[in-house]
Structures
1.
Amino acid sequence: MQTIRFGIDLAKNVFQVHGVDAAGRVVVQRQLRRGQMLTFFARQPAALIGMEACGSAHHWGRELQSLGHEVRLMPPSYVKAYVKRNKNDARDAEACCEAVSRPTMRFVPVKTVAQQCARAIHRARDLLVRQRTQSANAMRGLLYEMGLTGNKGAAGIAALVLRIEAADPAIPAALAGCLVALARQWRARGTEIAQLDKQILAEVRQDRAASRLMAIPGVGPITAHAVVAAVGEGRQFGSARDFAAWLGLTRKNHDTGGKHRLTGKISRAGDTGVRRLLVLGASSWLRQVRAKPGSASPWLRGILARRPVKVALVAQAAKTARIIWAMLTSGQEYRAPSAA
C-alpha cells in the first residue's frame, strides 16, 4: 500500500520512521541510520512528512523537500499531546505522524541556509557578550575585595582595565596575573563582538527589508537583522497580534466559566533573543522621549502618564513588534505618527 504520511523522530544517528496509508493503517515502522535517510525517502512517492522543530530539523526539512516531499515542522510542545504512554522513539514518530494530520496544528516554516546562518551570528554574538560581561564582573569583584572600585557601565570597567594593564601599585602583585588574563579576555571579546557587529551592519545594508525596519524608533541594525533572520517576511503569522504573541509580548490569557481575564504579566513565550532586543530598543527610545516629551506620540504620552515606566516600555516593545509585522508583510515604509 502507498504511504501518504510519515512521522520522523529525529536523532543524531538513528532515526525512527512511522508511516500510514490513506486509511490510517500503519505500513512503515522502522529505524533508519543517518546514511539511509535520503536513500529511503528517495524511493518513496511524494508524501506528507511531519517532524518536531528541533535540532537539525530544518536541514532534514530542506533535504526531504528537495526529494519532492511536503515537510511540516511542529513545535515539540504541540506534538507532546499525541504521545502515548511508555514514551520511546517509535511512539514519538507515531505522534509526529498523527499530529501533522491535524487541521488545527500550527507549523514552523522550514528555514533557509541563509536564515540559519544569520541566526547563528546572533547566537554567537550573545555568547561573546555574556563572556565579556562575566570577565568584567570577575574583575570588579576581585578588585572590590582589595578596596578598589570603578564607576558603573562600560566606561567604568574600561578605566579598571587600564589600571590593571598599567600595573597600578594599588593592585597586589599576587593578584595582577589573573587580572591581566581577565583584562586580555575582556578586550578580545570586545574586538570579536565589534567584528560581528560590522558583519551584521553590512548584511543589513544589503537587505531591503531590514533597512526599512531601521526607520522605526528603537530598531537598530542588530534588531532589524535578528527579526528578518527569525521570521523572514512574517507571512506565517495571521496578524500583528499573532507576531507579538509569538514574541511573548502579549499578556497571559486565563478564561474559565465564560469569564475572560488577562493577567498583568506578559507570557514571555517564543523567541527570547528578539524579544530582548525589542525591549532594549524600546528602553532607548523612551529615554529620548522622556528627555524631549514633545517628540512622543499621543499614545505613548498617555501610557507614560497613567502607567509605570516599565509597563510603558513593554507596551512600546509590543507596539514596535506590530509595526514590524505590518511593514514586513505589506512592503511599506515606516510612517511616523503625528506628535500633535
2.
Amino acid sequence: MTDQKRVRKAVIPAAGLGTRFLPATKAMPKEMLPVVDKPAIQYVVKEAVDAGLDNILMITGRSKRALEDHFDRVPDIEATLEAKGDTGKLAAVRESSNLGDLHYLRQGDPKGLGHAVLRAAGHVGDEPFAVLLGDDIIDERDELLTTMIDVQEKTGGSVVALMEVDPEMISSYGVAAINDVPGEAYVRIDHMVEKPDRDEAPSNLAVIGRYVLHPAVFEVLEDTPPGRGNEIQLTDALQTLARRDGEGGGVYGVVFRGRRYDTGDKLSYIQAVITLASDREDLGPALRAWIKDYASTLADEPRETVAAPAE
C-alpha cells in the first residue's frame, strides 16, 4: 500500500488502580513495581523505543505522578553520582530520561481500555499507532512489536498479539477466532470475545497486551457502548473493524510464542523477577545456584508456618 503511513507513535495505557497488588500499590502505581532494579513500565517504554516508536503517549490517572517523575531528569542525584565517579549508576539513572519523547494525558473517568485508547485520538491523529499495556513485559530477546508493525503496513488493517493459554485461564482474556492467511505467518481475526466462559471460548488464542491499530479505531470507539464490566472495551471496537471492508478494515493476529510476563499478576510478576535476574551476568550465577539449592529443599506441601510467640 503506497499511501500507508509508517507507525511512529505508541500509546501506553497506565491508569489502572492495581488492586491485585494492594497494599503495595496503595501509594505507588502498579507500573512502578520493580522488576529486579527497574520499574515494569520502563521495560515497556524501552520496547516501544527499540521498535522505532520514540513518540510515546502515556494515559495515566490520579496518583500516577511517579510515572512522570521516573522518566524525568533528577539533577541532584545525577550530580551526586557524577561527583562520586559512579558512572554505572549515573548511566542507569539517566537511561530512563533519555529513552524517548514522552507525553502524558490523564484518562479522567475510568471507563476501560477502549476509553483510554480513545483519549489518545488527539495525539495520534490519522496515523496507525501501537498500544502497549503497561503491565505486560515482552522479553527483549523475543521479537513481536516490529513484526506486528510490518503486518499492519502490509495489510492496512489493525493487528493484535495472540498467545496460546491454558483453557482454564481463558476467561481472563479477550479471545480470538482465526482464519489462516495462505502463504503468510499471520492470521486473520474472524471475531473476538471478551473474557468468555471456557465453554464459550472460540479458541485458546488470547489477546495479550500489544496492538498496532489503524486510526479508524477511534471513530468506532466513539460509537462503542459500554460492554462487559460497564466499560468501553477495545475488543468490541476491534470486533467491528474485523467485519469491515475497505479503509481501516480487517483485524489480523500475530501468534507470539516467546517470553511474556504479566506484572499485574502476582505469580507472573515473581516469575518475571526471577527469570530476568537469573539471566543477568551480575546476578545470574549466584541466583541460579541458590534456586537449585532452594528447590532441592522443597516438599510437595507448603512449609508449616510457625506463629510468633505472644508478648
3.
Amino acid sequence: MDKTDEVLKERIDKAKAGNQIAFSSLLDTFWNYVYYFQLDRTKNENDAEDITIQTFSKAFDKIKTYDDNYEFKTWLITISKNIHVDLIRKRKRNVLAGIENSTSDAVKKVLDESPTVEDQLITEQNLATLLSHIKKLKPHYQEVINLRYFNELSYAAIAKELNEPVNNVKVKLLRAKKLLAEIIKSK
C-alpha cells in the first residue's frame, strides 16, 4: 500500500468515526471525479450537480458499510450510477403518467390555469411552515439555504458571497439540508 492509499484509508476510517473534516476532505478529493462522471452521462450541469450532491449525501450516511476491499472511488461511482438510474426511472414514470393524463390535463388548462384562493393559501402556509423550520437552524445554515433556494444563487456565487471555498459551501448546504430534514421529520 503506497502513501496516498494509506492517507485515503485513514480519512475513510476517520469519516466512519464521524469526523467532519475527514468528510470534507473526501468530498474535496472526489467531488470533481463524480461530478464529471455524471456530467458526461447526463449532459446537464444541474442534474450532474444534484446527483453528485445526493451521491455524497448517501455515501456519508452509509460510510460505515463501505468495504475496504473495493476502491472508494468505485464505491462512489456505483452509488452515483444508482441515483442516476433512479432519476431516469422517476422521469419516465412522470412522462408516462403525463401522457395518460394529457387529455384531461389539456381540458383543465383550457378551463383554468390560475391557482384558486385555497391553493394560494395552502402554498403560503407551507412556505411559512418551511421558513419557521429553517429558522431553527444555526445562522450559517440558514444563510446558505436562503442564498441557494430563495435567492437561487449558484454554488460559485454563494462561495463568493460568503468568502468561502465552493466545496465548503457544498458541504455546508448538504449538512443544512440534512438538519432541516431531521427537523421536519421530528414534527
